[in-house]
Amino acid sequence: MKPTTLEEFYKSSPLAFIPAEISKEIGHFNVFDTEKLMDDIRRKPVMPYNRRAYYKISLISGHNRAEYADKVFEIEQSALLFATPKVPYHWMPYDMDQAGHFCIFTDDFLIQSKSGVVLDELPIFRPGGFPVFQVTEAARQEIDAIFRKMHKELASDYVYKYDLLRNYVVELIHYGQKLQPATSLYPTHTASARVSSLFIEMLERQFPIESPQQKLKLRTAKDYADSLAIHVNHLNKVLKENTGKTTTDIISGRILQEAKILLKQTDWSVSEIAYCLGFEEVAHFSNFFKKQTAFSPMSFRA
Question: Which pTM does this prediction carry?
Fold first, then answer.
């Protein structure tokens, strides 16, 4: 399963355009008005649930539903959303009364900035983080003003406009950072927190599954405990304290999340998906999936 590329994004959205002067040397950036794209959305009411090869920041006003991996966010009025190539997502408007803006950009585009921002180290772009924030009307107006400056600058002839646009992107990122729960921005640097952080990092590094030949190397709580050189009981205790879940629950949840993606976004057989996710028998995978979702893998795919 390949991420949706920028070229595929533009092909799927006929009202979008690529700025003529954008070059590979400075990465890619573009900004859009959601309301102007609603005609396109009417023809395709559900944004494909997929990974994308670019970052995205959206200001959405209206009644919507956003799904990030296995998380669901119901948006009643206005929200600021962040999306990363690492986490699949889709956005579904409940009606056509939608407004707002969104910008897309590549990692290369922001690397040119001297801000020191490393995208994948930020909680808003970290797998399992907090990517969606419902905002007040006052906050919506502030964010809307930043996007309007993006539109104005992108259409200008100013020779250094992309430097300004990078600053606007960084401003939006910091706006989201300030909305983060304090616990995710300032984690305690205890041994317990470090073990939890290392476990989550090891878990996420095994994903996404991109080939039927790829197979999870770490599958059980003991596998992770051995890799961390700690006893499995200690790992369970640490994760329970920090997340409220057992090691097995967290691993199972992440495997289920990937199983759903592979069933919906690939034509691989259930046997191939079971193999990739570390199940020795297809029946074991089917039983696991049905226990977690009440659907068989084939029923869910259909």
Answer: 0.55
